[in-house]
Amino acid sequence: MASGLEATFQYLARTDNPVAVELLDAALDCPYGPVRQLALAALLAKPNRAIHRRLFARLGEFDSACKAILAKRADRLVSVVSEIFSQVCQHSHKNSGLDCRKKQEEHATIKSATLDKTLRQDFLQACEAVREFCLYEALPGLIQAVEAAPEDLAVIGAGTVLELTKAFYGELSAGQNSARDVKTLRTRLTEALQAAASSYSRHRRRELLEAFLILAKPQDPLLRRILHDRRDSVHEELVRLLAESTEGGVIRLLLGFLEDPLAPQAALEVLAQRTDARFVQIWAHQAGYPPPEVWRETLSRVRRVAWAEPAHPLWSQLDGQAQAGAIGLLVATKIDRCQLLEILEYLLHHGQPEGRRTAAAALAELAGAKADLLVVRLLQDADPYVQAEAIRQLRRRNISEALSKLVHLVDSAEPVVRQALQEAMPEFTCKNFLRTFEQLPEELRQTAGYLVRKIDSDSLPLLVAEMQSLSPLRRRRAVEVASAMGAIAELEPQIVLLLQDEDHRVRIAAARALADSRSQPTWKALHDALFDRSLLVQEEAEKSLQKIIAALAGQTESATPPTSANCPESVGSQ
Fold first, then answer.
1. What is the pLDDT of residues 415-458, one digit of tens each?
2. Positive or negative, the Cα torsion across 227, 233, 239, 242?
3. Tell me: the pLDDT tens digits for 77-124?
4. Engineered SS bond to 389: which of 61, 156, 360, 524, CB 3.0-4.6 Å?
């Protein structure tokens, strides 16, 4: 049955018989939903504007299912509402007795023009349809109607233009316009809004100007001309909108100017003077620390920022990421450096964790005794990330006893602090220690080794690699360095293997180093070394065993001193 019903309506949609239109129109009143929907689809399929006008008049009667069908054929509604907007323009022109150009020049006369009741109602319904079905293609005609319509209708029409523009921008941002030729449509809408912006002094519709800003790009020639010319009649209102609008399109436009080193100064002044939290939050989030390289040249033209003050209320409204980005923005500007230092000090005391860390990092951009004092104070900060930022700066500032202050931090268990120490004291790396070990006085080797062990987290893998080197000199030196660093326990398996090395000097170094070990495998390896073919290796192995025995005897009174002939089980369990 459904198939037959659909076939019937398909026939009614194709036929040119005027009776078919009457049947379909009557079917719109059928209580059976599918019949109403098929009738509506059939009427929309007919390329007859009169039919579409009749459907427009019945919009208030349609349910959601019928409106969904209408939305798929929005072009039918566009032609109807566009015709209504055109009639409003023509009616206003006729009542004013002026041609179109003269009418625009004498807007006050047109404001007093009146429309007949039917046309007024059609205009209001057309605006409602434009909003409900997002009839973007009707926007140019609506703009012209707003400029010509009486005051009460112009207010409603201007609001509709702004609402429709915001909806279009929302779809652009979300990428929801795949079914439309977005580029062409945006160009058409922007051109219509450009014309409205140019004639602002006549219609004074703030909504049209804001709609223009929502879709405009920073390179828009009209926009740039207005911003550059402070005497332009639109300049003051346009700047005010840039400073006050919270629309995403306007915010995007303002931030877009930062990518242009030749951006109008008026736009940069607006950026710097806005203190509303939402705008600054978005701006700072996009900036990050440091801000994008493309922004820096433009930001360097800014010499004053309204919220660049310690304890400004805005700081407490920003999250940590925004505080960090805001610091990046201020560092890139030309605001007074003493003022910037005060802000950083304030944030170090009162900022969010991410803001405090960024403030500590930003101190690197500032010189002077006060900045130096702050860096020294941050070495004891409770946040290891703040500590790390101070560590990286200390030696570069030529602060007295900087190295000594850093050495006092090497026992930190925080990986980020240890990494910063490694960056701040590059000479205390295992690689450097291996290279200079033999030149260091004997009394300094243990101290240097301790620092290297604490600072260089990659030292142990490097020593393992050195112990496997083809060069006997490098193998022996790796063992001696491991001993100086106190890393024998961690490297014991590799050092035990070196007791079998082909070079007797490597075996001597290994036997001497293992005196610091207490494990059963070490004891056995040293015991075997007592029979080494080299007398010097035998002597070192015996000395190491004696040291181990003495150490074990000192640890517990109940331990039985081992002999050189065997290793008691208690040694292996120590």
1. 999 889 988 988 888 998 999 898 888 888 888 898 888 888 88
2. negative
3. 999 999 999 999 887 666 554 444 444 444 444 444 456 888 999 999
4. 360
How far is Cα 444 from Cα 50, in angstroms, rounded to an integer?
A: 101
| Total Cβ atoms within 10 A of residue 521 | 14
Residue 2, pLDDT > 60, answer no
The DSSP result for 239-274, as a single string, is HHHHHH---HHHHHHHHHGGG-TT--HHHHHHHHH-
pLDDT at 568: 34
Alpha-carbon distance of 421 to 394, in angstroms, equals: 10
Mean per-residue pLDDT of the chain: 88
Q: How far apart are CA 307 and CA 315, in angstroms?
A: 8
pLDDT of residue 572: 32
298-320 confidence digits (pLDDT tens)? 999 999 999 999 999 999 999 99
The C-alpha atoms of residue 424 and residue 415 are separated, in whole angstroms, by 14
384: preceding bond cis by omega (within 30 degrees) = no
d(CA 207, CA 181) in angstroms, rounded, equals 25
Tell me how far apart the alpha carbons of residues 22 and 42 are, in angstroms, rounded to a whole number. Answer: 12
Handedness of CA 157, 159, 162, 163 (dihedral sign): negative
Residue closest to 54 by CA, chosen among 88, 17, 29: 29
CB atoms within 10 A of CB 40: 23
Q: Does 132 have pLDDT greater than 50?
A: yes
Whether this model's pTM surpasses 0.85 = no
- Residue type at position 171: E
CB-CB contact of 57 with 127 (8 Å): no
Q: What is the residue type of 139?
A: L
For residue 335, give the H/E element and its range: none
Long-range contacts at 442-449 (CB < 8 A, ≥ 24 apart): 445/484, 446/484, 448/484, 449/481, 449/483, 449/484, 449/485, 449/486
Separation between Cα atoms, residue 406 and residue 414, nearest integer Å: 14
Task: Decide if 539 contacts 573 (C-beta within 8 A).
Answer: no
How would you classify residue 429: left for phi > 0, otherwise alpha for psi between -120 and 50, otherwise beta?
beta
Q: How far apart are CA 70 and CA 74, in angstroms?
A: 6
Does residue 29 or residue 107 have the better pLDDT?
29
User: What contacts 549, CB < 8 A, 6 or more positions away?
Assistant: 561, 562
Asked if residues 87 and 95 have their Cβ atoms less than 8 Å apart, the reply is no
DSSP symbols for 340-396: HHHHHHHHHHHS-HHHHHHHHHHGGG--SHHHHHHHHHHTT-SSHHHHHHHHHHHGG
Listed as own residue / partner, the contacts of 44-50 with beta carbons closer than 8 Å and 24 or more positions apart are 44/69, 44/70, 44/73, 44/76, 45/13, 46/13, 46/21, 48/21, 49/79, 49/80, 49/83
Question: What's the whole-number mean pLDDT along residues 538-559?
Answer: 79
